[in-house]
């Protein structure tokens, strides 16, 4: 009985904090990290704990309502900035890629007028140069920018920090690496990297720049809280998807379904706003480009495959070929995931161990291979005669090479011929997809060409996956899917002999099915497909296909991102506990590890030796009542203890809780000292120099600890512990003995506290009382009588807003 | 130290349950209810606790993977059923409303060819008859079906059950009441009621029918778990919105943003599927109706206000009038909320206290008033000459009365004239909105007519809100908003003198702004507006307007649903804790209420007197070690204790934990006994007859209790307690003294248990071991030596899947 302890004369310090409002570390601990030495596969555990101390909180309380408004306004302003930044980055990447690719194709076509061989070589060389630039940037400058980045961001939002993923250099590497790898014609896309780009921009904006961590102290304080940082990165992800596909709703749903681990509905509106800003920025930029300011860019680059001309109605018999598309998508998608697992493992275990040089060779080799296949295969293919065009139709055949559109003349002898394989293979991917999706071009592509393309491109996509360049899987997935979709479409047209069946629509369904079978996204993918094709009416069909392909894929393995997350050793906490946890108790989960606890007043030398002896991130603090009974008084974080040791301000000579010293110590510590910059490692115990005199001193931890971490009884089922940990986003839970009595039972009615009437009154009262209290505090300080008001009381106040 | 207790010879019973896996009541408790007598404003606390006992769990374990698949399949099948059911209900309501309204207008127009007065009277009478039928159904048959039902469903999904909201009679009342009130021309819509209808259908399907609670025991068990029921109702809500607006994505987002309190991303795909099924059902039904099978229905009724003809581009100067629309929307929306609060309070405190008769009079009076205004005002309005139509345009002017479309000839003298007020006022609301949204009809409506309509309809909407009929606020909101939107559009056209400004687009923005200002929905509203107008390009504009109107509205009051939820006394737990909680501790929240705890073996007479003495829904069970130290061993639910008392199976003569009896008692109790039907009240202590002999007996509670409810230390900040309670959806939290020591600290790494390798092995192992154990259990039972394996171990196993 705590009150009895006090009555029995336990030191009043504890009374102070038990009466005062306590710190709330609930969601705040959200992005906590692996707390011990379990650094698996190079995943490092950074420390994200955020401090907003007593002084900070007073400041806030005084600001009152104006501050709340200011706070909200700043958050929205940052959402705007993230939207604009991501939009501009997307525009820049797109314009660059389109220009490089356009220039490449124009040059090649010019040369092949004279010599196909010279054109071939030039094509290979340009691609090689672009891919080399990309892989060089990644290997030598920004290794964290390789791949799509989505698994890493997912991990970050789940509470794990992989070093370097949100650095400025990663952002730069991602942008320029994408331009090189996509412009260089590899079988990968720029969409995944754009998500990572958006997240980087958000994180960098949140911390106010890259090298200079203090752009403005006023701004910075908003994003010192871990939850705010997480929110920003979530906005950035949605912005990335919105920019990649020009799909604002899809972006929000992608962030919600695929990336985040914790979602608050308050955040949704802000995320949506960010996405919409991106859409506006991209739209404005495209309008500006239309007037010819962007070189080869024109209308292309941004994915909008408008198939509003596609079929609107569908008959019952068509559901069968559509189901077949779904099944193929599930099978090929699951196979893709499985193959990429093998390829990634092999790369990790053999190839990439040999250093950067091998990575560069590998990427260059794949580039040459891709160039040879995409140029060479269309050469081997015979040209087809142009279809008899209606006088009214706008279809032009053959088109001059180097111009966007269907029916490309490539290595064709006669005048009225086109090369269907070149139309999809020897082209930028966006144009190829546009051609595959195109409606009213029945029988443009022969089954043989499509099958050739499918096999070759699928192989290339598998091989390319995991090279050291920024790489998205959306566009390759759409390419693969639309190819077999169109194949099924051809068979359907031939079989049912109906006029209203459109091969382009089947290509779209194929794309959806492959993405569903590989990534296993559902709602967000559905909405993205609807938004990029600008055709709401296809929604039920897309959904049907996705349902089937996801179900088929789930039989074999997990989604691409999940598999990759696991391969990279990112220890995600899933939303559902594992089955085995049902048979375990909290105590069993802790194992036999001895708990290292700190006394309330700790000798510096002891603290140092405890910190050196292990890598734990948090330590229980145990005090004794005057009766000698032990009592757990809170949780001390390693990072906070390190700050205390480094600053030496709280040091005292006496081993007793010294009232005046610790109180002033708390005041003297600025809250920002406890907050760590996002992208550096924080201090280590080895960085701190302590003289032998210092080592003989003591620190009173009471003002700095978290007085009430969440606890569970030792024999609680681990499933329940897991739910507590995961849902509340905690970093530490104390396992304690079963209680001896129940002081009260809290039910819904106890939590229905009406604030209504007291709202404004409380506000007033509180701000004045705090001011009064503060005044008193100063007086007490001067008298050396103030004490024990814990620094952490004000912690995380921000987060409750 | 618990293990010490055991070593010290504490009875082995407790050891049994501390070793066995424990029950997980985490999310399961989700829809727990007000646990005490705090029945405010007639909100009753039903008990939703769900039991899946030991026997049930064994059954499940044996079924293994097949069962999991079956489980998933059944859930999807129910999603399909909900989609079909809600879709059909929506089609039925729409066809009925359209037919009643069409017949009404046709008849009236026929009569006014001869006499306007006779037509006027006929119009009033038909409306009166329809409204009377609606209000009669509601007052005499299904009182819970009044209003939109959204606040109630929101409460249900937050964990509060308002009696009757999910009954079969409510469903029937809602459907037929909607037809009467909407067909009768009142200023209300059928969209909110459709959400309620969807929820009712979902809930009824989940419990397998209305009166017969056991359609099939196999099916039923899936939806015994509270979480499954909640999921079904969530699906139903989304289906309702999808059916009302033919907006599947909007439906999902509405359920996510506005209605649910707990959201799992696994649920999202299922909810989306339900919405898509609705879309398909509605589409098929509409296709069938197009061939003339549905009377007056035709294409109308279902909201699709296609304004793809609207303006596509917008200049920078137009942002000003659009911002003005947003501000007007915020102001008028907030005013609407405020006025409805007064009206609702007045109704509740004065009018509706006088009984059903007054409610009927009231509705009839409002019906007559509405009829008089909507018929009379257009009569007073002078007709306008038809615009000079281009030869190519399809606009017909004047149209014959009784036909859908613009430019209605109503009480016009000359030939080439139309009555603009009649076009919007004397019409079904859907047609009126279509006319207001219509593009390329510049200056069809005069500012004077629009202003008249705005004032009159706004007043009618406020007055109608809260009458005892099913009533949605979407359509009235759209009407009001599009009116002033079009007004602003007129001024903009006049001021900027540009040709590409379209009044219809401004009407759409106005509609969005009013809904945003009143309901304060954001993403879902945005998506719904985009989906109903079928124009993705307006998204940024809609969002801009919504941002402004929501921000303006938030200055004044809360959203319509939140206000109404509070007025109805539905004690929602918000997702964020109240500010005052920061200054309170868990102990303070409990107040000075004495905790009533039960001993492990309780005398029946004592149990009865405890149950009679209070209304608590859960009791701590406290046992003593052999050393005499007390120990909290779990939580006993009132409902479970009542079941035990009623069945009398566990009764024993000895006051000691008797091993054989309770063990067999646990076995003899079927898990379904502990589950309560959704829509009845469960047993009360007064329903149980116990003889004086019974009262002298004892019950051993150990097998029936929840062995490890969540606990918090007494001085934890209430904010943290709130987060725990709310995020995990709990019903009871024990407040216990601060622990004396920490046995272990659980961090992320402790929860990263790999199931991968052991997965299949464990499955195998577990199913055999369970079977083995079961065999042993039987043997032990026979020997009378088995004991204490708690019945609740298997509880909620379902929910972990």
From TrEMBL, chains A, B:
Residues 705-762 form the CBS domain. One of its GO terms (cellular component) is chloride channel complex. The keyword Repeat applies. Keywords: CBS domain, Chloride, Chloride channel, Ion channel, Ion transport, Membrane, Repeat, Transmembrane, Transmembrane helix, Transport, Voltage-gated channel. Gene3D superfamilies: CBS-domain, Clc chloride channel. GO terms for molecular function: voltage-gated chloride channel activity. It is a multi-pass membrane protein. CDD domains: CBS_pair_voltage-gated_CLC_euk_bac (cd04591), ClC_6_like (cd03685). The chain crosses the membrane at residues 72-95, 115-138, 232-255, 267-286, 319-340, 450-468. It is found in: Membrane. InterPro entries: CBS_dom, CBS_dom_sf, Cl-channel/antiporter, Cl-channel_core, Cl_channel_pln, ClC. It holds the Pfam family CBS. Belongs to the chloride channel (TC 2.A.49) family. This is Chloride channel protein. It comes from Gossypium raimondii.
